[in-house]
Amino acid sequence: MTSLINIEIFKLLKQKRTYLAIVAIFVFELVVLWVAHDQGKAILDTLLDRLKDTFYFSGELLNGNLITYLLLNSLWFHLPLILMIIVSGMMCSEYEDGTLRAVLLQPISRWQFLMSKYLVASLFTIIVVLFLGVTAIGFSHLLFGGGDLVVYFERFTFFDQTEALRRLGLAFVAGSVTMVFYTVVSMTLAVLFKQTIKTWIVAAVFLVCSNLLVQVDLGSEWLNLWFFPKLTNTWQEFFVTDIDWSLIGVRLMVLTVYTLLAASVGFWIFNRREIG
Asked: Which keywords does this Swiss-Prot/TrEMBL entry list (predicted)?
Protein backbone atom coordinates (compact mmCIF):
# COMPACT_ATOMS: atom_id res chain seq x y z
CA MET A 1 0.00 0.00 0.00
CA THR A 2 2.83 2.38 0.84
CA SER A 3 4.42 1.71 -2.55
CA LEU A 4 1.13 2.48 -4.31
CA ILE A 5 0.79 5.76 -2.44
CA ASN A 6 4.35 6.74 -3.33
CA ILE A 7 3.69 5.91 -6.99
CA GLU A 8 0.51 8.02 -7.02
CA ILE A 9 2.37 10.94 -5.44
CA PHE A 10 5.09 10.60 -8.10
CA LYS A 11 2.51 10.55 -10.92
CA LEU A 12 0.70 13.55 -9.47
CA LEU A 13 3.92 15.53 -9.23
CA LYS A 14 4.80 14.60 -12.82
CA GLN A 15 1.60 16.13 -14.21
CA LYS A 16 2.01 19.65 -15.57
CA ARG A 17 -1.57 20.52 -14.66
CA THR A 18 -0.75 19.99 -10.97
CA TYR A 19 1.64 22.93 -11.07
CA LEU A 20 -0.67 24.92 -13.34
CA ALA A 21 -3.37 24.56 -10.68
CA ILE A 22 -1.08 25.96 -7.98
CA VAL A 23 -0.04 28.81 -10.26
CA ALA A 24 -3.71 29.51 -11.09
CA ILE A 25 -4.55 29.78 -7.37
CA PHE A 26 -1.58 32.07 -6.82
CA VAL A 27 -2.55 34.30 -9.76
CA PHE A 28 -6.13 34.49 -8.54
CA GLU A 29 -4.89 35.62 -5.13
CA LEU A 30 -2.80 38.35 -6.77
CA VAL A 31 -5.81 39.54 -8.80
CA VAL A 32 -7.96 39.80 -5.66
CA LEU A 33 -5.17 41.67 -3.87
CA TRP A 34 -4.79 44.08 -6.80
CA VAL A 35 -8.55 44.75 -7.01
CA ALA A 36 -8.69 45.28 -3.24
CA HIS A 37 -5.78 47.71 -3.39
CA ASP A 38 -7.28 49.60 -6.33
CA GLN A 39 -10.96 49.79 -5.38
CA GLY A 40 -11.43 48.19 -1.97
CA LYS A 41 -10.97 51.27 0.20
CA ALA A 42 -13.55 53.33 -1.70
CA ILE A 43 -16.13 50.54 -1.54
CA LEU A 44 -15.51 49.89 2.16
CA ASP A 45 -15.70 53.57 3.06
CA THR A 46 -19.07 53.81 1.30
CA LEU A 47 -20.48 50.77 3.12
CA LEU A 48 -19.25 51.73 6.58
CA ASP A 49 -19.36 55.51 6.47
CA ARG A 50 -22.09 55.82 9.11
CA LEU A 51 -20.66 53.08 11.32
CA LYS A 52 -17.34 54.95 11.57
CA ASP A 53 -19.17 57.75 13.37
CA THR A 54 -20.40 55.30 16.01
CA PHE A 55 -17.60 52.73 16.45
CA TYR A 56 -13.87 53.01 16.96
CA PHE A 57 -11.75 50.75 14.75
CA SER A 58 -8.13 49.81 15.40
CA GLY A 59 -6.07 50.45 12.26
CA GLU A 60 -7.27 50.54 8.68
CA LEU A 61 -10.51 48.65 7.96
CA LEU A 62 -9.07 47.58 4.62
CA ASN A 63 -6.42 45.34 6.12
CA GLY A 64 -4.90 41.90 5.74
CA ASN A 65 -7.61 40.19 7.77
CA LEU A 66 -10.41 41.57 5.62
CA ILE A 67 -8.55 40.73 2.41
CA THR A 68 -8.02 37.16 3.63
CA TYR A 69 -11.74 36.90 4.36
CA LEU A 70 -12.52 38.20 0.85
CA LEU A 71 -10.15 35.61 -0.60
CA LEU A 72 -11.96 32.90 1.36
CA ASN A 73 -15.29 33.98 -0.14
CA SER A 74 -13.82 34.25 -3.63
CA LEU A 75 -11.94 30.96 -3.73
CA TRP A 76 -14.47 28.52 -2.31
CA PHE A 77 -15.91 28.11 -5.80
CA HIS A 78 -12.76 28.44 -7.90
CA LEU A 79 -10.61 26.29 -5.61
CA PRO A 80 -12.81 23.15 -5.63
CA LEU A 81 -13.24 23.49 -9.39
CA ILE A 82 -9.47 23.48 -9.89
CA LEU A 83 -9.01 20.62 -7.44
CA MET A 84 -11.74 18.54 -9.07
CA ILE A 85 -10.08 18.94 -12.46
CA ILE A 86 -6.69 17.84 -11.13
CA VAL A 87 -7.96 14.93 -9.02
CA SER A 88 -10.32 13.49 -11.64
CA GLY A 89 -7.42 13.51 -14.09
CA MET A 90 -5.54 11.09 -11.81
CA MET A 91 -8.10 8.41 -12.70
CA CYS A 92 -9.24 9.43 -16.17
CA SER A 93 -5.66 9.38 -17.46
CA GLU A 94 -5.38 5.72 -16.38
CA TYR A 95 -8.39 4.81 -18.53
CA GLU A 96 -7.45 6.96 -21.52
CA ASP A 97 -3.75 6.00 -21.61
CA GLY A 98 -4.58 2.31 -21.32
CA THR A 99 -2.35 1.87 -18.27
CA LEU A 100 -5.10 0.68 -15.94
CA ARG A 101 -5.20 -2.90 -17.25
CA ALA A 102 -1.42 -3.19 -17.03
CA VAL A 103 -1.42 -1.90 -13.46
CA LEU A 104 -4.13 -4.31 -12.34
CA LEU A 105 -2.23 -7.26 -13.83
CA GLN A 106 0.25 -6.70 -11.02
CA PRO A 107 -0.27 -8.50 -7.66
CA ILE A 108 -2.38 -5.70 -6.18
CA SER A 109 -6.07 -5.58 -5.40
CA ARG A 110 -8.47 -3.11 -6.92
CA TRP A 111 -9.40 -1.61 -3.57
CA GLN A 112 -5.74 -0.93 -2.76
CA PHE A 113 -5.22 0.74 -6.13
CA LEU A 114 -8.26 2.99 -5.78
CA MET A 115 -7.65 3.64 -2.08
CA SER A 116 -4.18 4.96 -2.88
CA LYS A 117 -5.72 7.43 -5.31
CA TYR A 118 -8.33 8.63 -2.80
CA LEU A 119 -5.68 9.05 -0.10
CA VAL A 120 -3.23 10.94 -2.33
CA ALA A 121 -6.04 13.14 -3.69
CA SER A 122 -7.11 14.00 -0.13
CA LEU A 123 -3.53 14.71 0.94
CA PHE A 124 -2.97 16.92 -2.10
CA THR A 125 -6.17 18.81 -1.31
CA ILE A 126 -5.16 19.48 2.30
CA ILE A 127 -1.71 20.68 1.19
CA VAL A 128 -3.26 23.05 -1.38
CA VAL A 129 -5.63 24.51 1.23
CA LEU A 130 -2.67 24.96 3.60
CA PHE A 131 -0.75 26.67 0.78
CA LEU A 132 -3.74 28.93 0.16
CA GLY A 133 -4.09 29.80 3.84
CA VAL A 134 -0.41 30.63 4.32
CA THR A 135 -0.10 32.70 1.15
CA ALA A 136 -3.45 34.48 1.63
CA ILE A 137 -2.71 35.53 5.20
CA GLY A 138 0.97 36.23 4.47
CA PHE A 139 0.54 38.37 1.36
CA SER A 140 -2.54 40.17 2.71
CA HIS A 141 -0.79 41.21 5.92
CA LEU A 142 2.41 42.07 4.09
CA LEU A 143 0.60 44.45 1.73
CA PHE A 144 -2.23 45.74 3.91
CA GLY A 145 -1.07 45.21 7.51
CA GLY A 146 -3.26 44.07 10.39
CA GLY A 147 -6.30 45.55 12.09
CA ASP A 148 -9.89 44.86 13.08
CA LEU A 149 -11.91 42.53 10.88
CA VAL A 150 -15.43 43.56 9.91
CA VAL A 151 -17.63 40.94 8.23
CA TYR A 152 -21.29 40.77 7.29
CA PHE A 153 -22.78 37.34 8.04
CA GLU A 154 -26.46 37.86 8.86
CA ARG A 155 -25.31 41.14 10.50
CA PHE A 156 -22.14 43.21 10.89
CA THR A 157 -19.65 41.58 13.24
CA PHE A 158 -16.26 42.94 14.37
CA PHE A 159 -13.19 41.07 15.59
CA ASP A 160 -9.88 42.39 16.85
CA GLN A 161 -6.58 41.39 15.23
CA THR A 162 -5.88 38.32 17.39
CA GLU A 163 -9.41 36.96 17.25
CA ALA A 164 -9.61 37.58 13.50
CA LEU A 165 -6.48 35.54 12.81
CA ARG A 166 -7.76 32.70 15.00
CA ARG A 167 -11.09 32.56 13.20
CA LEU A 168 -9.52 32.79 9.76
CA GLY A 169 -7.24 29.87 10.60
CA LEU A 170 -10.20 27.80 11.83
CA ALA A 171 -12.12 28.66 8.65
CA PHE A 172 -9.30 27.23 6.53
CA VAL A 173 -9.31 24.04 8.62
CA ALA A 174 -13.07 23.62 8.20
CA GLY A 175 -12.76 24.51 4.54
CA SER A 176 -10.27 21.70 3.98
CA VAL A 177 -12.99 19.19 4.96
CA THR A 178 -15.24 20.68 2.29
CA MET A 179 -12.47 20.58 -0.31
CA VAL A 180 -11.73 16.91 0.45
CA PHE A 181 -15.43 16.15 -0.06
CA TYR A 182 -15.36 17.73 -3.52
CA THR A 183 -12.16 15.97 -4.56
CA VAL A 184 -13.44 12.58 -3.42
CA VAL A 185 -16.65 13.17 -5.40
CA SER A 186 -14.58 14.09 -8.47
CA MET A 187 -12.55 10.88 -8.16
CA THR A 188 -15.77 8.85 -7.95
CA LEU A 189 -17.11 10.67 -11.02
CA ALA A 190 -13.88 9.77 -12.85
CA VAL A 191 -14.41 6.11 -11.96
CA LEU A 192 -17.98 6.34 -13.26
CA PHE A 193 -17.44 8.26 -16.51
CA LYS A 194 -13.81 7.33 -17.30
CA GLN A 195 -13.42 10.15 -19.86
CA THR A 196 -11.79 13.46 -18.89
CA ILE A 197 -14.18 15.87 -20.62
CA LYS A 198 -17.33 14.10 -19.41
CA THR A 199 -16.00 13.99 -15.87
CA TRP A 200 -15.03 17.66 -15.87
CA ILE A 201 -18.46 18.72 -17.17
CA VAL A 202 -20.36 16.65 -14.61
CA ALA A 203 -18.03 17.79 -11.80
CA ALA A 204 -18.55 21.44 -12.77
CA VAL A 205 -22.34 20.97 -12.87
CA PHE A 206 -22.24 19.27 -9.46
CA LEU A 207 -20.21 22.15 -8.01
CA VAL A 208 -22.45 24.85 -9.52
CA CYS A 209 -25.62 23.15 -8.26
CA SER A 210 -24.10 22.71 -4.80
CA ASN A 211 -23.30 26.43 -4.61
CA LEU A 212 -26.77 27.42 -5.84
CA LEU A 213 -28.45 25.22 -3.23
CA VAL A 214 -26.44 26.57 -0.26
CA GLN A 215 -29.10 29.16 0.58
CA VAL A 216 -32.07 26.78 0.25
CA ASP A 217 -33.95 26.32 3.52
CA LEU A 218 -35.77 22.98 3.80
CA GLY A 219 -37.84 24.26 6.71
CA SER A 220 -36.39 21.85 9.26
CA GLU A 221 -33.13 22.00 11.20
CA TRP A 222 -32.81 18.22 10.93
CA LEU A 223 -33.28 18.26 7.14
CA ASN A 224 -30.91 21.20 6.76
CA LEU A 225 -28.31 19.29 8.76
CA TRP A 226 -28.37 16.43 6.23
CA PHE A 227 -28.62 18.64 3.14
CA PHE A 228 -25.02 18.45 1.93
CA PRO A 229 -24.89 21.77 -0.03
CA LYS A 230 -25.46 23.66 3.23
CA LEU A 231 -22.68 21.68 4.92
CA THR A 232 -20.10 22.95 2.44
CA ASN A 233 -20.57 26.45 3.83
CA THR A 234 -19.73 25.46 7.43
CA TRP A 235 -16.56 27.60 7.50
CA GLN A 236 -18.77 30.71 7.60
CA GLU A 237 -19.97 29.69 11.07
CA PHE A 238 -16.64 30.89 12.49
CA PHE A 239 -17.63 34.49 11.72
CA VAL A 240 -20.67 34.76 13.99
CA THR A 241 -20.25 36.43 17.36
CA ASP A 242 -20.47 33.25 19.44
CA ILE A 243 -19.10 30.15 17.74
CA ASP A 244 -21.44 27.15 18.03
CA TRP A 245 -18.81 24.42 18.32
CA SER A 246 -21.32 21.59 18.57
CA LEU A 247 -23.10 22.68 15.39
CA ILE A 248 -19.83 23.00 13.49
CA GLY A 249 -18.60 19.63 14.76
CA VAL A 250 -21.82 17.84 13.77
CA ARG A 251 -21.91 19.47 10.33
CA LEU A 252 -18.30 18.52 9.61
CA MET A 253 -18.91 14.95 10.78
CA VAL A 254 -21.97 14.65 8.53
CA LEU A 255 -19.95 16.03 5.60
CA THR A 256 -17.25 13.45 6.36
CA VAL A 257 -19.93 10.74 6.23
CA TYR A 258 -20.95 12.00 2.77
CA THR A 259 -17.29 11.91 1.74
CA LEU A 260 -16.98 8.28 2.82
CA LEU A 261 -20.24 7.42 1.05
CA ALA A 262 -18.96 9.01 -2.17
CA ALA A 263 -15.76 6.96 -1.90
CA SER A 264 -17.79 3.80 -1.20
CA VAL A 265 -19.77 4.34 -4.40
CA GLY A 266 -16.48 4.66 -6.26
CA PHE A 267 -15.19 1.38 -4.81
CA TRP A 268 -18.45 -0.40 -5.63
CA ILE A 269 -18.43 0.76 -9.27
CA PHE A 270 -14.71 0.04 -9.72
CA ASN A 271 -14.92 -3.50 -8.30
CA ARG A 272 -17.93 -4.45 -10.43
CA ARG A 273 -16.70 -2.99 -13.73
CA GLU A 274 -14.67 -4.92 -16.23
CA ILE A 275 -11.47 -3.12 -17.17
CA GLY A 276 -11.27 -2.92 -20.96
From this structure: Membrane, Transmembrane, Transmembrane helix
